[in-house]
Protein backbone atom coordinates (compact mmCIF):
# COMPACT_ATOMS: atom_id res chain seq x y z
CA UNK A 1 0.00 0.00 0.00
CA UNK A 2 1.29 3.47 -0.87
CA UNK A 3 1.92 5.90 1.98
CA UNK A 4 -0.54 8.81 2.08
CA UNK A 5 0.79 11.92 0.37
CA UNK A 6 1.80 14.70 2.73
CA UNK A 7 2.24 18.27 1.57
CA UNK A 8 4.52 21.14 2.39
CA UNK A 9 2.95 24.54 1.84
CA UNK A 10 4.89 27.66 0.88
CA UNK A 11 4.06 30.94 2.65
CA UNK A 12 1.79 31.87 -0.28
CA UNK A 13 -0.19 28.64 0.28
CA UNK A 14 1.12 26.66 -2.72
CA UNK A 15 1.21 22.99 -1.80
CA UNK A 16 4.04 20.65 -2.78
CA UNK A 17 3.75 16.88 -2.17
CA UNK A 18 6.63 15.53 -0.08
CA UNK A 19 8.89 13.13 -1.97
CA UNK A 20 8.16 9.41 -1.63
CA UNK A 21 10.84 6.86 -0.73
CA UNK A 22 11.13 5.56 -4.28
CA UNK A 23 11.95 9.05 -5.61
CA UNK A 24 15.23 9.30 -3.71
CA UNK A 25 17.23 7.03 -6.03
CA UNK A 26 16.16 8.80 -9.25
CA UNK A 27 16.79 12.17 -7.66
CA UNK A 28 20.34 11.17 -6.72
CA UNK A 29 21.02 9.75 -10.17
CA UNK A 30 19.95 13.01 -11.84
CA UNK A 31 22.02 15.12 -9.49
CA UNK A 32 25.06 12.89 -9.89
CA UNK A 33 24.90 13.34 -13.67
CA UNK A 34 24.66 17.10 -13.36
CA UNK A 35 27.55 17.18 -10.88
CA UNK A 36 29.65 14.94 -13.12
CA UNK A 37 29.08 17.24 -16.11
CA UNK A 38 29.90 20.26 -14.00
CA UNK A 39 33.13 18.67 -12.86
CA UNK A 40 34.08 17.88 -16.46
CA UNK A 41 33.71 21.58 -17.16
CA UNK A 42 36.20 22.27 -14.37
CA UNK A 43 33.66 23.39 -11.79
CA UNK A 44 33.97 22.69 -8.09
CA UNK A 45 30.88 21.03 -6.55
CA UNK A 46 29.52 22.79 -3.47
CA UNK A 47 26.64 21.55 -1.30
CA UNK A 48 24.86 24.13 0.87
CA UNK A 49 23.01 22.47 3.76
CA UNK A 50 19.92 24.47 4.72
CA UNK A 51 18.39 26.84 2.17
CA UNK A 52 16.78 29.28 4.62
CA UNK A 53 17.28 33.04 4.92
CA UNK A 54 21.05 32.75 4.71
CA UNK A 55 21.66 29.46 2.86
CA UNK A 56 19.44 30.21 -0.16
CA UNK A 57 21.23 33.47 -0.91
CA UNK A 58 24.70 32.18 -0.05
CA UNK A 59 24.08 29.23 -2.40
CA UNK A 60 23.25 31.65 -5.22
CA UNK A 61 26.30 33.82 -4.51
CA UNK A 62 28.55 30.74 -4.73
CA UNK A 63 26.75 29.60 -7.90
CA UNK A 64 27.34 33.05 -9.45
CA UNK A 65 31.13 32.77 -9.00
CA UNK A 66 33.30 33.00 -12.11
CA UNK A 67 36.98 32.21 -12.69
CA UNK A 68 39.62 34.62 -14.02
CA UNK A 69 38.28 34.08 -17.56
CA UNK A 70 34.75 34.94 -16.48
CA UNK A 71 33.54 31.31 -16.70
CA UNK A 72 31.26 29.92 -13.96
CA UNK A 73 33.51 27.97 -11.59
CA UNK A 74 31.10 26.38 -9.08
CA UNK A 75 28.15 24.05 -9.29
CA UNK A 76 25.96 24.38 -6.21
CA UNK A 77 23.47 21.93 -4.75
CA UNK A 78 21.22 23.39 -2.07
CA UNK A 79 20.11 20.61 0.25
CA UNK A 80 17.12 20.92 2.51
CA UNK A 81 15.24 18.52 4.78
CA UNK A 82 12.00 17.34 3.17
CA UNK A 83 9.95 18.31 6.23
CA UNK A 84 6.38 19.61 5.90
CA UNK A 85 7.68 22.94 7.21
CA UNK A 86 10.56 23.40 4.80
CA UNK A 87 10.32 21.10 1.77
CA UNK A 88 8.57 23.74 -0.39
CA UNK A 89 11.85 25.66 -0.59
CA UNK A 90 13.32 22.96 -2.88
CA UNK A 91 10.78 22.99 -5.74
CA UNK A 92 10.63 26.79 -5.51
CA UNK A 93 14.39 27.13 -5.84
CA UNK A 94 14.40 24.65 -8.73
CA UNK A 95 11.94 26.91 -10.57
CA UNK A 96 14.41 29.75 -10.10
CA UNK A 97 12.30 31.45 -7.44
CA UNK A 98 13.68 32.66 -4.16
CA UNK A 99 12.27 30.94 -1.07
CA UNK A 100 13.27 34.07 0.85
CA UNK A 101 11.18 37.20 0.58
CA UNK A 102 13.56 40.14 0.53
CA UNK A 103 13.38 43.86 -0.17
CA UNK A 104 16.55 43.49 -2.27
CA UNK A 105 15.53 42.84 -5.92
CA UNK A 106 18.94 41.21 -6.48
CA UNK A 107 17.84 38.18 -4.41
CA UNK A 108 15.27 37.16 -7.03
CA UNK A 109 17.60 38.08 -9.89
CA UNK A 110 20.66 36.15 -8.70
CA UNK A 111 18.62 33.01 -7.95
CA UNK A 112 16.80 33.12 -11.32
CA UNK A 113 20.09 33.77 -13.15
CA UNK A 114 21.97 30.87 -11.51
CA UNK A 115 19.11 28.35 -11.79
CA UNK A 116 17.73 29.16 -15.24
CA UNK A 117 20.51 30.79 -17.24
CA UNK A 118 23.85 29.72 -15.83
CA UNK A 119 22.41 26.42 -14.59
CA UNK A 120 24.88 26.40 -11.72
CA UNK A 121 22.32 26.03 -8.93
CA UNK A 122 19.86 23.28 -8.07
CA UNK A 123 18.18 22.12 -4.89
CA UNK A 124 17.48 18.66 -3.55
CA UNK A 125 15.98 16.80 -0.61
CA UNK A 126 18.41 13.90 -0.95
CA UNK A 127 21.38 14.37 1.36
CA UNK A 128 23.28 11.68 -0.58
CA UNK A 129 24.37 14.66 -2.69
CA UNK A 130 27.00 15.19 0.03
CA UNK A 131 28.96 12.35 -1.58
CA UNK A 132 29.51 14.60 -4.59
CA UNK A 133 30.81 17.65 -2.73
CA UNK A 134 34.24 19.27 -2.77
CA UNK A 135 32.97 21.79 -0.22
CA UNK A 136 29.96 21.66 2.12
CA UNK A 137 28.62 24.92 3.52
CA UNK A 138 26.41 24.52 6.60
CA UNK A 139 23.65 27.12 6.94
CA UNK A 140 21.17 25.34 9.19
CA UNK A 141 19.86 27.12 12.27
CA UNK A 142 21.23 26.87 15.79
CA UNK A 143 18.62 28.33 18.11
CA UNK A 144 18.70 29.53 21.67
CA UNK A 145 15.42 28.73 23.43
CA UNK A 146 14.41 30.93 26.29
CA UNK A 147 12.27 29.37 28.99
CA UNK A 148 11.14 32.59 30.66
CA UNK A 149 10.45 36.06 29.33
CA UNK A 150 13.21 38.38 30.53
CA UNK A 151 15.51 35.67 31.88
CA UNK A 152 18.00 34.60 29.27
CA UNK A 153 20.04 32.59 31.79
CA UNK A 154 17.47 29.79 32.00
CA UNK A 155 17.51 29.32 28.23
CA UNK A 156 19.54 26.77 26.33
CA UNK A 157 21.17 26.26 22.96
CA UNK A 158 19.22 24.02 20.63
CA UNK A 159 21.81 22.35 18.47
CA UNK A 160 19.66 19.43 17.28
CA UNK A 161 19.47 20.54 13.62
CA UNK A 162 23.18 21.34 13.51
CA UNK A 163 24.25 18.08 15.14
CA UNK A 164 21.95 16.04 12.87
CA UNK A 165 23.38 17.80 9.82
CA UNK A 166 26.95 17.17 10.92
CA UNK A 167 26.24 13.48 11.52
CA UNK A 168 24.87 13.18 7.98
CA UNK A 169 27.85 15.07 6.58
CA UNK A 170 30.28 12.77 8.42
CA UNK A 171 28.52 9.70 7.02
CA UNK A 172 28.60 10.87 3.42
CA UNK A 173 31.37 13.28 2.43
CA UNK A 174 34.58 12.29 0.67
CA UNK A 175 37.74 12.52 2.82
CA UNK A 176 39.08 15.56 0.88
CA UNK A 177 35.84 17.57 1.27
CA UNK A 178 35.97 20.82 3.25
CA UNK A 179 33.05 21.42 5.64
CA UNK A 180 32.47 25.08 6.38
CA UNK A 181 30.10 25.95 9.23
CA UNK A 182 28.49 29.35 8.66
CA UNK A 183 25.84 28.89 11.33
CA UNK A 184 26.23 31.15 14.34
CA UNK A 185 27.21 28.69 17.03
CA UNK A 186 28.03 28.63 20.72
CA UNK A 187 31.82 29.25 20.95
CA UNK A 188 33.66 25.95 20.99
CA UNK A 189 31.07 24.14 18.84
CA UNK A 190 33.23 23.77 15.73
CA UNK A 191 36.23 22.23 17.51
CA UNK A 192 34.61 20.46 20.46
CA UNK A 193 31.23 19.33 19.09
CA UNK A 194 31.32 19.31 15.29
CA UNK A 195 34.87 18.06 14.74
CA UNK A 196 34.42 15.05 17.07
CA UNK A 197 31.15 14.17 15.27
CA UNK A 198 32.95 14.20 11.90
CA UNK A 199 35.98 12.34 13.28
CA UNK A 200 33.79 9.60 14.78
CA UNK A 201 31.94 9.16 11.50
CA UNK A 202 35.22 8.99 9.58
CA UNK A 203 36.58 6.38 12.02
CA UNK A 204 33.44 4.30 11.53
CA UNK A 205 33.97 4.47 7.77
CA UNK A 206 37.68 3.51 8.26
CA UNK A 207 38.79 6.82 6.78
CA UNK A 208 42.20 7.60 8.26
CA UNK A 209 42.49 11.26 7.28
CA UNK A 210 41.33 14.09 9.55
CA UNK A 211 38.06 15.80 8.49
CA UNK A 212 38.64 19.28 7.07
CA UNK A 213 36.48 21.63 9.10
CA UNK A 214 36.28 25.44 9.25
CA UNK A 215 34.05 28.21 10.59
CA UNK A 216 33.08 31.54 9.05
CA UNK A 217 29.97 33.29 10.31
CA UNK A 218 27.42 35.30 8.34
CA UNK A 219 26.77 39.00 8.80
CA UNK A 220 23.79 39.14 6.46
CA UNK A 221 21.49 42.10 6.95
CA UNK A 222 17.85 41.94 5.84
CA UNK A 223 16.88 44.90 3.65
CA UNK A 224 17.70 46.38 0.27
CA UNK A 225 21.36 45.27 0.39
CA UNK A 226 20.69 41.63 1.24
CA UNK A 227 22.97 40.05 -1.39
CA UNK A 228 25.67 42.63 -0.92
CA UNK A 229 25.64 42.14 2.85
CA UNK A 230 26.80 38.58 2.22
CA UNK A 231 29.08 39.00 -0.81
CA UNK A 232 30.48 42.50 -0.38
CA UNK A 233 31.19 42.53 3.31
CA UNK A 234 34.07 41.79 5.66
CA UNK A 235 34.36 38.14 6.61
CA UNK A 236 36.13 36.31 9.39
CA UNK A 237 37.19 32.66 9.17
CA UNK A 238 39.28 29.98 10.85
CA UNK A 239 40.08 26.32 10.25
CA UNK A 240 40.47 23.46 12.73
CA UNK A 241 43.95 22.81 11.31
CA UNK A 242 46.35 24.36 8.79
CA UNK A 243 44.94 22.50 5.82
CA UNK A 244 41.34 23.46 6.66
CA UNK A 245 42.44 27.05 7.17
CA UNK A 246 44.11 27.17 3.75
CA UNK A 247 41.06 25.61 2.09
CA UNK A 248 38.53 27.93 3.71
CA UNK A 249 40.61 30.99 2.88
CA UNK A 250 40.88 29.92 -0.76
CA UNK A 251 37.16 29.17 -1.00
CA UNK A 252 36.03 32.47 0.53
CA UNK A 253 38.47 34.46 -1.62
CA UNK A 254 36.91 32.81 -4.69
CA UNK A 255 33.24 33.36 -3.82
CA UNK A 256 33.23 36.66 -1.91
CA UNK A 257 34.49 40.14 -2.71
CA UNK A 258 37.49 39.90 -0.40
CA UNK A 259 39.46 42.35 -2.58
CA UNK A 260 37.35 45.29 -1.44
CA UNK A 261 36.31 43.75 1.88
CA UNK A 262 39.40 42.08 3.34
CA UNK A 263 39.08 38.67 4.94
CA UNK A 264 40.26 38.21 8.53
CA UNK A 265 41.77 34.79 9.09
CA UNK A 266 41.94 33.76 12.73
CA UNK A 267 44.00 31.03 14.39
CA UNK A 268 41.19 28.89 15.74
CA UNK A 269 37.43 28.50 15.11
CA UNK A 270 36.63 29.47 18.72
CA UNK A 271 38.03 32.90 17.89
CA UNK A 272 35.86 33.27 14.81
CA UNK A 273 32.82 31.97 16.74
CA UNK A 274 33.52 34.37 19.61
CA UNK A 275 33.86 37.32 17.22
CA UNK A 276 30.27 36.84 16.08
CA UNK A 277 28.92 36.49 19.61
CA UNK A 278 30.86 39.49 20.91
CA UNK A 279 29.93 41.82 18.05
CA UNK A 280 26.24 41.02 18.49
CA UNK A 281 26.39 41.22 22.29
CA UNK A 282 28.10 44.60 21.95
CA UNK A 283 25.24 45.90 19.81
CA UNK A 284 22.64 44.40 22.16
CA UNK A 285 24.40 45.98 25.13
CA UNK A 286 24.54 49.56 23.81
CA UNK A 287 20.83 49.35 23.03
CA UNK A 288 19.94 47.91 26.43
CA UNK A 289 22.11 50.43 28.22
CA UNK A 290 20.09 53.25 26.68
CA UNK A 291 16.87 51.81 28.11
CA UNK A 292 17.58 53.28 31.54
CA UNK A 293 18.38 56.67 30.05
CA UNK A 294 15.24 56.44 27.98
CA UNK A 295 13.18 56.08 31.17
CA UNK A 296 15.20 58.82 32.83
CA UNK A 297 14.43 61.07 29.84
CA UNK A 298 10.71 60.26 29.88
CA UNK A 299 10.43 61.21 33.56
CA UNK A 300 12.56 64.34 33.54
CA UNK A 301 11.53 66.38 30.53
CA UNK A 302 14.44 65.24 28.35
CA UNK A 303 14.17 64.26 24.69
CA UNK A 304 16.53 61.28 24.29
CA UNK A 305 16.40 61.73 20.51
CA UNK A 306 18.09 65.13 20.81
CA UNK A 307 20.56 63.78 23.38
CA UNK A 308 21.59 61.02 20.98
CA UNK A 309 21.86 63.45 18.07
CA UNK A 310 24.12 65.68 20.15
CA UNK A 311 26.33 62.75 21.19
CA UNK A 312 26.58 61.48 17.62
CA UNK A 313 28.40 64.69 16.67
CA UNK A 314 31.46 63.20 18.36
CA UNK A 315 33.08 60.90 15.81
CA UNK A 316 34.10 58.52 18.62
CA UNK A 317 30.42 58.03 19.59
CA UNK A 318 28.81 58.04 16.16
CA UNK A 319 27.37 54.53 16.39
CA UNK A 320 25.03 55.31 19.30
CA UNK A 321 21.46 54.48 18.31
CA UNK A 322 18.01 55.34 19.58
CA UNK A 323 16.54 52.30 21.34
CA UNK A 324 13.21 51.27 19.84
CA UNK A 325 10.70 48.92 21.45
CA UNK A 326 13.02 45.92 21.64
CA UNK A 327 15.87 44.58 19.64
CA UNK A 328 14.53 42.00 17.21
CA UNK A 329 16.02 40.14 14.28
CA UNK A 330 17.18 36.57 14.42
CA UNK A 331 20.65 37.20 15.84
CA UNK A 332 20.87 39.91 18.48
CA UNK A 333 18.29 38.45 20.89
CA UNK A 334 19.96 35.04 20.96
CA UNK A 335 23.68 35.27 20.25
CA UNK A 336 24.79 36.42 23.72
CA UNK A 337 22.77 33.51 25.12
CA UNK A 338 24.81 31.09 23.00
CA UNK A 339 28.00 32.54 24.52
CA UNK A 340 26.74 32.35 28.11
CA UNK A 341 25.52 28.78 27.56
CA UNK A 342 28.77 27.66 25.90
CA UNK A 343 30.89 28.89 28.80
CA UNK A 344 29.29 26.25 31.03
CA UNK A 345 28.04 23.52 28.74
CA UNK A 346 30.80 23.30 26.14
CA UNK A 347 33.77 24.84 27.91
CA UNK A 348 33.00 23.48 31.41
CA UNK A 349 33.09 26.58 33.65
CA UNK A 350 30.76 26.87 36.67
CA UNK A 351 31.17 30.59 37.38
CA UNK A 352 29.15 31.91 34.43
CA UNK A 353 26.98 34.09 36.65
CA UNK A 354 30.00 35.84 38.15
CA UNK A 355 31.65 36.36 34.80
CA UNK A 356 28.66 37.25 32.62
CA UNK A 357 26.90 40.14 34.28
CA UNK A 358 26.34 42.51 31.38
CA UNK A 359 25.37 40.36 28.38
CA UNK A 360 22.47 38.48 30.07
CA UNK A 361 21.12 41.70 31.59
CA UNK A 362 21.29 43.43 28.21
CA UNK A 363 19.34 40.68 26.48
CA UNK A 364 16.75 40.58 29.28
CA UNK A 365 16.23 44.34 29.08
CA UNK A 366 15.87 44.25 25.29
CA UNK A 367 13.46 41.30 25.50
CA UNK A 368 11.08 43.17 27.79
CA UNK A 369 11.40 46.80 26.75
CA UNK A 370 8.34 46.55 24.50
CA UNK A 371 6.10 45.90 27.53
CA UNK A 372 6.57 49.54 28.48
CA UNK A 373 4.86 50.56 25.22
CA UNK A 374 1.70 48.78 26.38
CA UNK A 375 1.80 50.79 29.64
CA UNK A 376 2.26 54.04 27.71
CA UNK A 377 -0.74 53.16 25.52
CA UNK A 378 -2.86 52.44 28.59
CA UNK A 379 -1.79 55.74 30.20
CA UNK A 380 -2.41 57.79 27.07
CA UNK A 381 -5.91 56.35 26.69
CA UNK A 382 -6.62 56.93 30.37
CA UNK A 383 -5.62 60.59 29.99
CA UNK A 384 -8.32 60.79 27.32
CA UNK A 385 -10.86 59.15 29.67
CA UNK A 386 -10.76 55.93 27.66
CA UNK A 387 -9.75 52.44 28.73
CA UNK A 388 -7.39 49.91 27.28
CA UNK A 389 -9.86 47.04 27.62
CA UNK A 390 -11.84 46.96 24.42
CA UNK A 391 -9.95 49.89 22.87
CA UNK A 392 -9.24 49.75 19.13
CA UNK A 393 -5.49 50.11 18.76
CA UNK A 394 -3.60 50.27 15.47
CA UNK A 395 0.01 49.11 15.56
CA UNK A 396 2.01 50.50 12.64
CA UNK A 397 5.03 48.33 11.89
CA UNK A 398 5.30 44.60 12.54
CA UNK A 399 8.90 44.09 11.45
CA UNK A 400 11.93 44.55 13.67
CA UNK A 401 13.53 47.33 11.69
CA UNK A 402 12.64 50.07 9.28
CA UNK A 403 11.75 49.39 5.67
CA UNK A 404 12.10 45.60 5.87
CA UNK A 405 9.48 42.86 6.16
CA UNK A 406 11.43 40.68 8.62
CA UNK A 407 9.28 40.09 11.73
CA UNK A 408 11.53 37.71 13.63
CA UNK A 409 11.54 38.55 17.36
CA UNK A 410 10.27 42.08 16.67
CA UNK A 411 9.42 44.27 19.65
CA UNK A 412 6.08 44.82 17.93
CA UNK A 413 5.05 41.22 18.60
CA UNK A 414 5.48 41.75 22.32
CA UNK A 415 3.51 45.00 22.19
CA UNK A 416 0.62 43.20 20.47
CA UNK A 417 0.71 40.29 22.88
CA UNK A 418 0.78 42.49 25.99
CA UNK A 419 -2.01 44.78 24.73
CA UNK A 420 -4.08 41.74 23.77
CA UNK A 421 -3.62 40.36 27.25
CA UNK A 422 -4.83 43.72 28.58
CA UNK A 423 -7.99 43.34 26.51
CA UNK A 424 -7.29 45.75 23.65
CA UNK A 425 -8.43 45.03 20.08
CA UNK A 426 -5.16 45.30 18.19
CA UNK A 427 -5.10 45.93 14.43
CA UNK A 428 -1.89 45.72 12.42
CA UNK A 429 -0.55 47.74 9.50
CA UNK A 430 2.78 47.19 7.74
CA UNK A 431 3.67 48.06 4.14
CA UNK A 432 6.37 45.36 3.96
CA UNK A 433 4.78 42.39 5.76
CA UNK A 434 2.21 40.25 3.93
CA UNK A 435 1.70 37.68 6.67
CA UNK A 436 2.73 37.95 10.29
CA UNK A 437 3.46 34.27 10.84
CA UNK A 438 4.49 34.74 14.48
CA UNK A 439 0.80 35.53 15.09
CA UNK A 440 -1.06 33.80 12.23
CA UNK A 441 0.73 30.48 12.76
CA UNK A 442 1.54 30.93 16.43
CA UNK A 443 1.11 27.24 17.23
CA UNK A 444 3.88 26.21 14.83
CA UNK A 445 6.01 29.28 14.26
CA UNK A 446 8.91 29.78 14.91
CA UNK A 447 8.57 26.14 16.11
CA UNK A 448 5.93 24.26 18.11
CA UNK A 449 6.10 25.42 21.74
CA UNK A 450 8.42 28.32 20.93
CA UNK A 451 5.96 31.12 20.24
CA UNK A 452 5.97 34.09 22.59
CA UNK A 453 2.28 33.38 23.06
CA UNK A 454 3.35 31.03 25.87
CA UNK A 455 4.25 34.00 28.06
CA UNK A 456 0.83 35.71 27.77
CA UNK A 457 -2.87 35.04 28.40
CA UNK A 458 -5.77 35.42 26.00
CA UNK A 459 -3.75 35.02 22.79
CA UNK A 460 -5.77 32.51 20.79
CA UNK A 461 -7.58 34.91 18.48
CA UNK A 462 -4.29 36.45 17.33
CA UNK A 463 -4.15 33.56 14.86
CA UNK A 464 -6.81 35.47 12.87
CA UNK A 465 -4.55 38.51 12.48
CA UNK A 466 -4.50 40.15 9.05
CA UNK A 467 -1.86 42.68 8.13
CA UNK A 468 -3.62 45.75 6.73
CA UNK A 469 -2.18 47.67 3.81
CA UNK A 470 -4.36 50.78 3.43
CA UNK A 471 -3.36 53.16 6.20
CA UNK A 472 -6.28 55.64 5.98
CA UNK A 473 -8.71 52.71 6.04
CA UNK A 474 -6.86 50.97 8.87
CA UNK A 475 -7.06 54.13 10.98
CA UNK A 476 -10.83 54.43 10.72
CA UNK A 477 -12.32 54.42 14.25
CA UNK A 478 -8.95 53.86 15.93
CA UNK A 479 -8.51 55.12 19.50
CA UNK A 480 -4.76 54.60 19.86
CA UNK A 481 -2.06 54.61 17.19
CA UNK A 482 1.31 53.02 17.96
CA UNK A 483 4.15 54.01 15.65
CA UNK A 484 6.32 51.01 16.36
CA UNK A 485 8.79 51.01 13.46
CA UNK A 486 10.21 53.99 11.53
CA UNK A 487 9.13 52.79 8.06
CA UNK A 488 9.38 55.63 5.53
CA UNK A 489 5.59 55.68 5.09
CA UNK A 490 5.13 56.51 8.78
CA UNK A 491 7.78 59.23 8.91
CA UNK A 492 5.78 61.54 6.68
CA UNK A 493 2.38 61.21 8.32
CA UNK A 494 0.58 64.53 8.90
CA UNK A 495 -1.27 64.79 12.22
CA UNK A 496 -4.28 66.44 10.51
CA UNK A 497 -4.59 63.48 8.12
CA UNK A 498 -4.24 60.93 10.92
CA UNK A 499 -7.01 62.53 12.99
CA UNK A 500 -9.20 62.90 9.88
CA UNK A 501 -8.74 59.21 8.96
CA UNK A 502 -9.35 58.09 12.56
CA UNK A 503 -12.49 60.23 12.64
CA UNK A 504 -11.68 61.44 16.15
CA UNK A 505 -8.80 62.63 18.35
CA UNK A 506 -6.69 59.65 19.34
CA UNK A 507 -3.76 58.58 21.51
CA UNK A 508 -0.47 58.49 19.58
CA UNK A 509 2.45 56.45 20.91
CA UNK A 510 5.82 57.04 19.24
CA UNK A 511 8.28 54.20 19.85
CA UNK A 512 11.14 55.25 17.59
CA UNK A 513 11.46 59.03 17.65
CA UNK A 514 9.32 59.42 14.53
CA UNK A 515 7.43 62.54 15.58
CA UNK A 516 8.93 66.00 15.20
CA UNK A 517 8.18 68.57 17.89
CA UNK A 518 5.83 70.29 15.41
CA UNK A 519 3.93 66.99 14.91
CA UNK A 520 3.63 66.49 18.66
CA UNK A 521 2.38 70.06 19.14
CA UNK A 522 -0.16 69.64 16.34
CA UNK A 523 -1.50 66.37 17.77
CA UNK A 524 -2.12 68.13 21.10
CA UNK A 525 -3.80 71.06 19.31
CA UNK A 526 -6.10 68.53 17.64
CA UNK A 527 -7.14 67.14 21.03
CA UNK A 528 -4.94 64.04 20.91
CA UNK A 529 -2.73 62.61 23.62
CA UNK A 530 0.91 61.81 22.77
CA UNK A 531 3.35 59.54 24.56
CA UNK A 532 6.72 58.26 23.41
CA UNK A 533 9.63 56.09 24.42
CA UNK A 534 12.39 58.32 25.77
CA UNK A 535 10.82 61.67 24.94
CA UNK A 536 10.07 63.47 28.20
CA UNK A 537 9.82 66.91 26.59
CA UNK A 538 6.37 65.94 25.34
CA UNK A 539 4.89 67.03 28.67
CA UNK A 540 6.38 70.48 28.15
CA UNK A 541 4.83 70.76 24.69
CA UNK A 542 1.50 69.58 26.10
CA UNK A 543 1.55 72.31 28.78
CA UNK A 544 2.46 74.97 26.21
CA UNK A 545 -0.44 73.96 23.98
CA UNK A 546 -2.87 73.88 26.91
CA UNK A 547 -1.66 77.30 28.10
CA UNK A 548 -2.08 78.78 24.62
CA UNK A 549 -5.56 77.30 24.13
CA UNK A 550 -8.37 79.86 24.44
CA UNK A 551 -10.27 79.43 27.73
CA UNK A 552 -14.07 79.30 27.42
N1 LIG B 1 18.87 35.47 9.08
C1 LIG B 1 19.75 36.34 9.48
O1 LIG B 1 19.47 37.53 9.44
C2 LIG B 1 21.13 35.90 9.95
C3 LIG B 1 22.18 36.83 10.02
C4 LIG B 1 23.46 36.41 10.41
C5 LIG B 1 23.66 35.08 10.77
N2 LIG B 1 22.61 34.20 10.71
C6 LIG B 1 22.86 32.83 11.09
O2 LIG B 1 22.75 31.96 9.98
C7 LIG B 1 22.28 30.69 10.39
C8 LIG B 1 21.09 30.25 9.55
O3 LIG B 1 20.04 31.18 9.76
P1 LIG B 1 18.82 31.32 8.80
O4 LIG B 1 18.20 32.62 9.12
O5 LIG B 1 19.22 31.02 7.40
O6 LIG B 1 17.88 30.12 9.35
P2 LIG B 1 16.62 29.43 8.63
O7 LIG B 1 15.85 28.79 9.70
O8 LIG B 1 15.98 30.39 7.70
O9 LIG B 1 17.27 28.32 7.72
C9 LIG B 1 17.80 27.14 8.16
C10 LIG B 1 17.41 26.07 7.16
O10 LIG B 1 18.09 24.87 7.47
C11 LIG B 1 17.19 23.79 7.27
N3 LIG B 1 17.64 22.62 8.00
C12 LIG B 1 17.52 22.33 9.31
N4 LIG B 1 18.03 21.13 9.59
C13 LIG B 1 18.51 20.63 8.43
C14 LIG B 1 19.15 19.41 8.06
N5 LIG B 1 19.40 18.47 8.98
N6 LIG B 1 19.49 19.23 6.77
C15 LIG B 1 19.24 20.18 5.85
N7 LIG B 1 18.61 21.34 6.13
C16 LIG B 1 18.26 21.56 7.40
C17 LIG B 1 15.87 24.35 7.77
O11 LIG B 1 14.78 23.62 7.31
C18 LIG B 1 15.92 25.77 7.19
O12 LIG B 1 15.41 25.85 5.89
C19 LIG B 1 21.94 30.83 11.87
O13 LIG B 1 22.98 30.35 12.64
C20 LIG B 1 21.83 32.31 12.08
O14 LIG B 1 22.14 32.68 13.40
C21 LIG B 1 21.35 34.58 10.29
Provide a concise account of the structure shown.
The protein has 552 residues and is α/β, with parallel strands linked by helices. The chain has helices spanning 23-40, 55-63, 89-94, 105-117, 160-172, 189-204, 226-231, 242-255, 269-299, 304-312, 332-345, 352-355, 359-368, 371-383, 411-421, 437-440, 471-475, 488-491, 495-502, 517-525, 538-548, and strands at 7-9, 15-17, 44-49, 74-79, 121-124, 135-138, 143-145, 156-158, 178-181, 212-215, 236-239, 264-265, 392-396, 425-429, 467-468, 480-483, 507-510, 529-532.
Would you give an account of this structure?
The protein is of the alpha/beta class and 552 residues long. It is built from 21 helices and 18 strands. It has helices at residues 23-40, 55-63, 89-94, 105-117, 160-172, 189-204, 226-231, 242-255, 269-299, 304-312, 332-345, 352-355, 359-368, 371-383, 411-421, 437-440, 471-475, 488-491, 495-502, 517-525, 538-548, and strands at residues 7-9, 15-17, 44-49, 74-79, 121-124, 135-138, 143-145, 156-158, 178-181, 212-215, 236-239, 264-265, 392-396, 425-429, 467-468, 480-483, 507-510, 529-532. Helix 15 links the parallel strand 13 and strand 14. It is elongated. The mean pLDDT is 96. The structure holds nicotinamide-adenine-dinucleotide (NAD). Nicotinamide-adenine-dinucleotide is lined by residues 49-55, 79-81, 86, 89, 139-142, 161, 164-165, 183-184, 218-220, 222, 330-331.
Amino acid sequence: MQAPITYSASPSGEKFPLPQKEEYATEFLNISKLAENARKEGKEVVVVMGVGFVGAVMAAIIADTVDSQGKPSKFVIGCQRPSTRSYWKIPMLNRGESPVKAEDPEVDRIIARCVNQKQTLIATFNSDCLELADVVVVDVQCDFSKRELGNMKTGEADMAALEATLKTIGQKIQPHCLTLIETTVAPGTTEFVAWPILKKAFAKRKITSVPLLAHSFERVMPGREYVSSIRDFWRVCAGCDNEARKRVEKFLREVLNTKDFPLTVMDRPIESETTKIVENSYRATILAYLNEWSIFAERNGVDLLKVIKAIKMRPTHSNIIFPGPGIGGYCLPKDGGLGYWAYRHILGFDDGDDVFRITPTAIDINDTRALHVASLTRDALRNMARYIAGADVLLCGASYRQDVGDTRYSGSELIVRKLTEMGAEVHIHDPYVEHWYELESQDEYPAPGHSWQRFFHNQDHLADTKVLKDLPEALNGIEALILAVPHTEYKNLKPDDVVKWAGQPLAVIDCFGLLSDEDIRRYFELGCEVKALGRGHIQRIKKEVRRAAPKN
